Amino acid sequence: MLQIDKESIEAVRRMNNPYRSRYGFLMDLVQINELSSTTLQAITCPTLIMHSKNDNAVPLEHAYFAHSKIDQSGLCSLDSWGHLIWLGDQATEVNKKVVSFLYRE
After folding, report:
1. CA-wise closest residue to 4 among 48, 40, 56
2. Would you call 92 exposed, middle or buried from its count of C-beta atoms within 10 A (0-12, 13-18, 19+)?
3. Which of 97, 84, 90, 100 is nearest to 25 (CA)?
4. Considering Cα of 95, then 31, then 69, then 45, what sign does the dihedral take?
5. How far is CA 44 from CA 72, 73, 95, 99, 104, in A?
6. Separation of alpha carbons 20 and 2, rounded Å
7. How far apart are alpha carbons 58 and 30 in whole angstroms?
8. pLDDT digits over 9-57, tens only?
9. Strand 73-78 relative to strand 47-52, pairing
């Protein structure tokens, strides 16, 4: 079972501390209901979709669905510990993939 280290837990705590109202999370819940195939197909720029195989918050099928609808998308399935892919022991690998995507020709 993948575990999150103490430094990552503290990073999440610091990140969420200013958002005591949880407004951002509520906004995500509203927006997910408004997302459609048409909306995704309207995306015309190169798009990197990153999703953890261990994410218990959002099913992996969502990433595959988005990838199937966005023409210029790449799908990167990760082995990170959960939903917050930029934390934990895979953070360096995640960052490398993002930088590689941004600097590709």
Report:
1. 56
2. exposed
3. 84
4. negative
5. 7, 9, 23, 20, 17
6. 27
7. 14
8. 677 667 766 655 556 655 665 666 677 899 999 999 999 999 999 988 8
9. parallel
